[in-house]
Amino acid sequence: MSSEIGVMALNRKRLAAMTAAVVMMSATGSTAQADEGLGTAEDPVTVRIIANEAFANTWQTTLVPEFNKVYPHIEVVFDGVPYPDMLAKMMLDATSPDPEYDAYLIDDPWVPQMAEVGALIDLKGEDIAAITDDGYDWDDFSAAPLAAGEWQGVQYAVPVRSNVLLRFYNRTLYEQAGLDEPTPEQTWDEFFADAEALVRDTDGDGQDDVWAISTYFVRDSLTPTIWQSILNANGGNLLDEEGKPAFANETGAVSLETHKRLLDYAPPGGLGHGFSESLQAFRQGLVANLFNWGSIYKATAVDSASTTLTPDEVGIQVLPVGTENAGTHRGIWIAGISSKTDRQEASWAFLQWLTSREGEAINAALVGSFPARLSTLESEPAEPWLAPVYETLKHAYAVAGEGGMWRIRSPRSDAAQQILADEVARGLAGQVEAEEALGIAAEKVERALR
User: Where are the domains of the chain?
Assistant: First the structure.
C-alpha cells in the first residue's frame, strides 16, 4: 500500500512537472526533447547505468526485478565496467554530445570531477523536486554518506551502496589462540600484542599456517586508504585548512610504519595482497583479521557459495584505536543523473526507489549493500545477520564524519590518489623510508591539486 501511495504522489508531481514544461516550451518556442516519463506497457522506457562490474550483474538480476514490481515499464540496464576504467569512461561519456548513459554510479572522490564538467544534475533542484515523492526524506540520511554526493553546496548524487573500511575478525582463530574477542576499543598496541599469538603452526609441521592479518599492501589506488585510516585515527589529516598536503610529518610517518608493520603478521607474499587476495585468505580461515570494505560481509560471512565461514564466526567492527579515535574510511558509491539525459524522470524513479527505506532494506537483505538512512539503521533488519552490521555502521559513520575520513575531494582527486598509491607502495615495500615517501608524495600532490 505504501508503494502505491508513493507512486500516486509521484504521478501527481509528474503531471505538474509536465504541465510546467509544456507551458515553458510554448512560451519560449523551445524544441528541446521532452522527457520520456515513466513509460507504458506499449512504450517502455530504458534507463542505462554505468556501474562497477563487481556488483553490476548482481544488481541487474536481483534488484531490477524488485524495482519492476513498482515500476513495470522502466527497463534498467547496467553496464559493468572494471573499477580502474570507470572514471575515464564516465568522463568520456559525460562530455560526449550524445552520451550513452542516463545515470552514473560514482565512487566517493569522483563527484567533484563529474560536477566540474557539468555531467550531473542537481538532485535538490526544481526539476527533480517536481518529480520527487513527498515521502522522500532527505533529512533521514546519515550525514557522512549523504555528503559524499555533495560538492560546493549542490547535491549531485545519492548514496546507493554505502561503504566504509571495517575490521573483520575470525572468532574461532581468536579462541584457538587463547585470546579474548577484540572490541571496538582495542588500541593498535593491543592489536599487535594479539597478533604475536595469532600467527601459529596449527598442524605441527614447523611452518606457520595461520596468520594475524591481511589487507591492502600492493600498489593500488585503494591501498593508501589503510594508511589514511591510521593517520586519521592518530589525529592527522591529508590536507590542511588551505587545501595543502598535511601528512608529511611525524604523524604521517608513524601511521605508514604501522601499516607496514602489519606485513610482519601477514601470510608469505602479503606485499602482493590487495582486495581479492586478502579477502580470499580471510574467507578460507587463513588469517584472523581482515581490513577491507564492509559491504563484503554478506559474501564473507553468510553466502556459503563464496566462503567457508558463518555469521557466528565473523565479527565486524571499526579498525583499532589510534592516539585520537578509532579508524575507518568512507567509500560511498553514490549515483547521479546525467545532465544530458532525456530519461530524467525514469532515472530518478529508479534512484529514488533504490535509496528509499524500502529499497535500502531490499538491497541490504538480498545483496548485502549497506544502507545510509538513519531509519533503516534503527529498524529491525529483514535478516538476522544484518543486526550487528547495522550497529557497526552507525558507529563507523559517526567516526568517519568526526575524523574527516575520506579521500581527497577535488576535481583533481584521482591524480592525487594515484600519487599516494605510488609512494605508499614504495614505503610499504621498504624501497624508501616512510618520511621520504610521504615527503615526495606531498610535493607531487600539491602540484596536482593546483
Answer: 2-163+331-393, 165-329+408-449
